[in-house]
């Protein structure tokens, strides 16, 4: 996935300008990006919706148990 496309789509979805996009290590089924904005930094995980929903569920479960975990917003959208 092209970083310029990631920046454009993310800016449109979040309503924030994306200053920089960095590709992160991902897994076979997804691509991950670190997005730098004036409102903070965000990680975008691009994958099929079922995989993202499963990961969001797991993160919510471990966070509820007191384990530090990423907060997932817009999972599956």
Name its key features.
three-stranded antiparallel beta sheet; alpha+beta; about 80 residues; 2 domains; 3 strands
How many DSSP H or I helices? 2
Biggest sheet details = 3 strands, antiparallel
- Strand tally: 3
Mean pLDDT: 86
Strand content: 25-35%
Distance between the termini: 17 Å
Strand arrangement within the widest β-sheet reads 1-2-3
Instruction: Assign an overall shape.
Output: globular
Extract low-pLDDT stretches.
Answer: none
How many separate domains make up the residues?
A: 2
What's the alpha carbon Rg, rounded to whole Å? Answer: 13 Å
How does the SSE layout of this entry go?
Elements: H1 3-14, E1 18-24, E2 31-37, E3 40-46, H2 49-64
Antiparallel strand pairs: 1-2, 2-3
Task: Describe the fold and architecture.
The chain folds into two domains: about 5-45, no CATH class; about 50-75, no CATH class. The model has no long low-confidence stretch (mean pLDDT about 85). The chain is globular and about 35 Å long. Helices cover about 35% and strands about 25% of the residues. It starts with a helix and ends in a 13-residue tail after the last helix. The longest helix is centred in the C-terminal third of the chain and has 16 residues, at about 50-65. A three-stranded antiparallel sheet has the order 1-2-3, covered by helices on one side. The chain is an alpha+beta fold and about 80 residues long.
């Amino acid at each position: 996935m092209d970083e310029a496309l990631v920046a454009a789509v993310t800016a449109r979805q979040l309503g924030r300008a994306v200053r920089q996009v960095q590709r992160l290590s991902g897994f076979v089924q997804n691509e991950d990006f670190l997005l730098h904005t004036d409102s903070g930094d965000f990680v975008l995980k691009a994958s099929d919706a079922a995989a993202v929903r499963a990961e969001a569920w797991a993160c919510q479960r471990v966070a509820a148990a007191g384990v530090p975990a990423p907060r997932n917003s817009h999972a599956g959208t």
